[in-house]
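Re: export button greyed out
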Amino acid sequence: MNRFAELLDRLAYERSRNNKLRLMIDYFRSTGDPERGWALAALTGGLSFPHAKAGLIRSLIAERTDPVLFELSYDYVGDLSETVALMWPTQSAPSPLAGEDWGGGSGGDVQTATIALPLSTPTPDPSPQGEGESLCKEHNLTLTDVVETLARLGKAQLPQQLARWLDRLDETGRWALIKLVTGGLRVGVSARLAKAAVAALGDKDVHDVEVIWPALAPPCRELFAWLEGRAGKPVSGDPAPFRPPMLAHALDNADLAGLNPADFTAEWKWDGIRVQAVAGREGKPDGRLVARLYSRTGEEISKSFPDLLAALRLPGAIDGELLIMRDRRVQTFNVLQQRLNRKTVTAKLTAEFPAHLRAYDLLADGEEDLRERPFAERRARLERFVERLGDERIDLSPLIPFRNWDELIAARKNPASAGAGPDAAAVEGVMLKARAALYLPGRPKGLWWKWKRDPFIIDAVLMYAQRGHGKRSSYYSDYTFGVWTKGDDGDELVPVGKAYFGFTDEELLQIDRFVRRNTIERFGPVREVVHEADRGLVLEVAFEGLQRSSRHKSGVAMRFPRINRLRWDKPPGQADRLDRLEALLRHIEQDQLQGQIA
Amino acid sequence: MIRPEDILVPSPSGVCCKRGGFHIDPTRPVERAVVTHAHSDHARAGHGAVLATPETLDLMRLRYGENFAGTTQALAYGESVSLAGAKITLHPAGHILGSAQVAVEVDGLRVVASGDYKNADPTADPTCAPFELVRCELFITEATFALPVFRHGEPDAEIHKLLHSLALFPERAHLVGAYSIGKAQRLIALLRKAGHAAPIYLHGAMEKITNYYAERGIALGELRLARGAAKASLAGTITICPPSALNDLWTRRFPDPVAAFASGWMRVRARARQQGVALPLVISDHADWGGLTATIAATGAGEIWVTHGQEDALIHWCATRGLKARPLDIVGYGDEEGEDSSEGSEDAS
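Workaround output, generated via the alternate export path:
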């Protein structure tokens, strides 16, 4: 448990993805089975302990500490698990005064007697050997002990068992144990990153692990055996596995010249979330049908979209875009967002925000794997597959007809008149796919291109700058910018967004220098910089969308804002006004409204 | 019969002994001061006369220059001096080099002002004399870490954590924030004790003080200044710097630095995260909760005065033990952290 706790502790503070990977690789390499397998399960969200709740932890600490001291401590620390971990009374903390001669020979008045421990340390309950306790009596408590014991333990025995473990662990160990059993393990590691760390043990790509992941069950001994070259690759028996997706490169107008329009098909890039919808039969060809929905990163999101899951009635694997469809019209991402990140999916939610799958590609048709076939062939199979499904919740992503690049450029500029019609507001750009391309995981060069719609652009004024994290911790790299509006005393700037990327390293240095030399006030890590009509820095900000927001004083929130250009040449007084954003917002909303009416 | 408050009285600028005509750790200039240790919230320049251990006087000279006080008088541990019937004796406080508790006796009644102290295992700090317990009627204690959540643990385990990180990221520089007087040198000594033999780099603000420690025979091994070192040569090395330098422009000279911070505050995650620390090391020169309560009980004092820190919790604890306790509202005592912020920029240009 200590090694695992140390890992979690370190991960919780480390911000860089690469360094998090290194820490995990070191752990997986230096830790044996089954311990590391349980750790992998914990990091990928594969462990849950239904009986351990925060209330239980609270009552355990209440039995052991003075309530006034607990409240003062909780107030200071601010996190229940951490407070309990830190102030849990232990026997193993002897007073440094005990048993020592502290006289030091400096005069007869000095007390030299041994002093008894005045700390309040309750004697641990001499309870009979609990289940699993014998396992860990002789060695340090391991994660494996915890997992295996909890799997057998009834709810009634849990408090006593937890207390015994907490007695044996140190501060970090107690923190990790409480976070683990109460399900609050948040150390900034995604399931995919943990899988990438494991894959690195065998110089494999994370996709190789993703592919067989559904076939594995913790503690995943066979996975580690394969990665360490001690056994063959585990075989997936999963009827509805995730397949590593194929991704596109961003296209520059300059790239077009080197491409032959006849080699490519084009379709709209829909602004939803990319998903994989998979169905397959368990065991025999007439077995039970299992259907699953995966995110682009391979995380299962079936539970969030039961309405769509019901439509996956034929064995196969569709690569597509999850959208919200109302009255046969695609809704914008703003609408979809209201369906995401909900803990419970109610009937009201699915009725109001009906999930829809727009199919891009077919990776498997029944038992047949199509990934080694060219796109043109897969597309034909997809068309037949969607037709066979015959469900209005799943439709085809239409192709954009074009004979030359000029026609495609025109279509991208005006999707509404090029076939997208009233759905144009949900179009993010254009996708180009080589007719001959096989379905290759990752981002292979030259086969798929995404050609995003031009972003919205405004000129805003830098108002506040905050120091970044990790490598950027000595740079002011997070910028809050504002636009002009009428205030009580004439024009004033109102913040409209925050951006922390889009600039080059050289530009970062320039802005950093500007911030340091033009600070007018400091609030901890934040500096307010000069922003007047004739003094200040104008930032050209690019963003993908706009929505109303009651959380911002300006009433608008940008989607995906980034610094496009530094306008040293432009006086702040000439930066954009809030009116312009409001007009843009009305325009976007009108588009949406038309989509609903049409 | 004489009472403790006849010997010492609290005042906003520090505890005062009217009989002896002196203040202990006064926060503004006074005629006569007894100084417990050299951290700047306790040891200020500009007093008429200063009484302290020879080490504390040396450190004050290094920090403030030769003329930091009108006159000085050195008093070694265990030696006594009488001022108008008040007998002053200095005892090791175990906080930093030269740190002392001030025992004042009048007519056989003894009160002790502890200053800052830690009562750890003597091997946990090779750079100063270990804390000595003095029985007394009134004990004035610090309360920097006076909450039960503060348990400092073994510093060796934290040093191991630092060395493990160094082995894991050999291409990165490890910057360890530490207060310039005491903590920095203790860290170096602990690293040496753990077998780390490579040169350790120093921020310029640490140089004078660290040299003083080395001159006194405290084994610190090979030390180099980070200033002027080639960036690539700092990969895989440890540099000790003031905490405020961790987020400074100064860090740009290091390859992909790992920010560590050695302090008792690092026990609390929110504190570590606030400071942008990636590798918190719980190493403190103050007593933790267990140390404070054990010491208070062991002094045998019936009356406890509590200064700077989490007074509430300690006063509550004293009440549950039947001890008379009160907070002292002295303005100006704080964490050593404050002292270092002014000297964080070595060459911020």
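The longest helix of chain B spans residues 155-168. The button fix ships in the next patch.
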